[in-house]
Amino acid sequence: MTQSVTDTIRGLLAEHARLGVDVSSLSDTDDLYGAGMTSHASVTVMLACEDEWDLEFPQQMLKKSTFASIANIRDALSELGVDGASVASA
Amino acid sequence: MGGHEQDADGPEHTQVWFGPESRPLHGWVSRPAGGLARGGAVLCPPMGEEGRAAHRTFRRLAEQLAEAGIVALRFDYDGTGDSAGLQDDPDRVPAWLASIEAARQYLLDLGAPGVAAVGMRLGATLAAVQAAASAPFSSLVCWDPCLSGRTFLREGEALHGFGETALEAPDDGLRHTPGFQYDAATAAQLRDVDLGKLTSERQLADRVLLLARTDRPAPPAIVARLEQERLETGAATAQGQLLDVPPELSVVPQDALRQVVGWLTAGVQDEPAVPVKAPDGEHAVLVGSGPDGSVPVRERLVRLGPDRIVGFADEPADLRPEAGPAPWVVLVNVAAEHHIGPGRRWVEWGRRWAALGYRVVRIDQSGVGDSPTRPGAVDDRAFAPEWIDDMRHVVTELAGDGAQVGIVGLCSGSYSAFEVAMWEHVDAVFAINPRLTLYPAAKGSPVYTDRRRAAMLPNRPFAALARRRRILAGGLWRIYREVALWHAPLLVPWRVLSRGTAVEIIACPDDAQHFTEVYALRPLLWWMRRRRGFGFESRRDLDHSLLTRPAQLVGYEKATMFLHRSLTGHRTEDARRG
């Protein structure tokens, strides 16, 4: 299940993050901002995640670090109760 | 201080007030040459920080439409820009929609044979919603539209948290976006604004143009809804350079602009050109300075100096000349952004100070906002040399009746305040986050001049290095400045203070350190702080661009107290008590 959430995140990044590199070349912990994602692109990623899982990130999660890596996004989704997002279920 | 702006034998551009008399809306009508138009267009700007960024683009759009034979009205929604109302008044969404309808009606009353709408971002969404609720437009341009009010708000909230000036939003029940905040009721209303969910039973326009970003395709729900109209599509090219940068760096997307003008013009090419009335001449109105239009003050457009730069002046509604000249407060535009200030605070501060007995003018220096650009100069160039003369003319003209003059500025506006205080007598300068080391104006830059008296200009090697390695250049410059004391920014307020001007600086720690880090001058700072008429405070609750609510509240409170202390020529009882 974790794999599918991660894959979905990767798909959303490929579509919306406007990275300077192929998302498949990034590990789960690589810095997405370092890979070329701008603040504006990360907002688009956030909205795409909200649409995908029909949720809303609370105010305290609206910070750069939440979207700094695939692992961070997965952790945030796990905290919001998205099935299969927790590492323990991998 | 007044009049129309007209190109020779060309379109005429007139500042207008329209809509409810008790709550006037502000706009500019661009009327084709000879007063003959084939159609009309209301220009619905983006909301919030995006609206600030798009100001120049919308001005150019209005001008080009008028040149093409279309009478255009660019305007500010209720509680935004220069229109009456506060941004946190209740029922924002209905008020914004009513503003669009009032704009359409105003053009029809002038005699426009039909009215199109051009909306960008949330402006496009609102225009479509209003068309569905009221009547279709002749044409509708949806320029990079937001899918919904919800997505607009979520994007803004995320940018507030993710942006370069990211600061934690306070837990005050408001929804925080960069510069602008919305209450819970407005947020709830925004959820009902959804372009994708507009019923297909209501036509939006006779024809629709959707301009979508190439790097961010339009949401499928927008496309699906607009495909039920007579739809054409195009690319919103260069939208990133317009909106994904700080407003002072925004660039007008020329190709997209041409596309919009060409498409709207094609829609009316077979229509006869009919006379449209000239709008009423520029005049004063009463606008509320408090919630729900309370405590009205008198507001009017002014044109100052030989270059007739534009400002909006607020005065007490019951100004009594026999009581002597009320002091003037000048609010200076920030960098190349127009005169409404960060989060529109210049508008709301100016009106509140007018209610306290001051006369206040918020200005656009040459080439910025609604002011003309000098021949041979370029638009939106921060620190243009002509700003020195603009400010001198403003101060001498306002002081002409013997009034005291104080200036309030943020960042580059603070520099302009210090600069003019080195040339003319200024009674008070309130500087928020001043940066007086001007890399953009260093030797070799397009705005270099040896006339500056309040700028610390890095030597050419530092400036050249800064273009490639900003942080390294800044570090080296600071080391050099420890011995080259004459470059220390603290010397500027000291010189201004010595000329009899009251000075107060409040700054975020990053900006404050420029005044404190030269060790040899710390005794001077200590001595200045002991002097009456000088204040200096480093505050962690300020962000550089004043885009957070706590910073905006602190800025207003501190500036108001400073003005009350420093401008003693004429004040109301309220001001004296403050």
Tell me about this structure.
The complex is a heterodimer of chains A (90) and B (578). Chain A has 90 residues and is mainly α. Chain A has helices at residues 2-16, 39-53, 70-79. In chain A, 44% of the residues lie in helices and 0% in strands. The longest helix of chain A has 15 residues, at 2-16. Chain B has 578 residues and is an alpha/beta fold. In chain B, helix 2 packs parallel to helix 9 and helix 13 packs antiparallel against helix 14 (470-483). Chain B is globular, with a radius of gyration of 24 Å. Classes of the chains: A mainly alpha (90), B alpha/beta (578).
What's the structural blueprint in terms of helices and strands?
The complex is a heterodimer of chains A (90) and B (578).
Chain A: H1 2-16, H2 39-53, H3 70-79
Chain B: E1 5-6, E2 12-18, E3 25-31, E4 36-37, E5 39-44, H1 49-53, H2 55-67, E6 70-75, H3 92-110, E7 115-120, H4 122-133, E8 140-143, H5 149-162, E9 175-176, E10 181-182, H6 184-191, E11 208-212, H7 220-226, E12 231-235, H8 239-243, H9 254-268, E13 274-275, E14 285-288, E15 296-304, E16 309-316, E17 328-332, H10 345-355, E18 359-363, H11 386-398, E19 405-410, H12 412-421, E20 428-432, H13 460-468, H14 470-483, H15 491-498, E21 502-507, H16 509-516, H17 522-530, E22 534-538, H18 549-566, H19 573-577
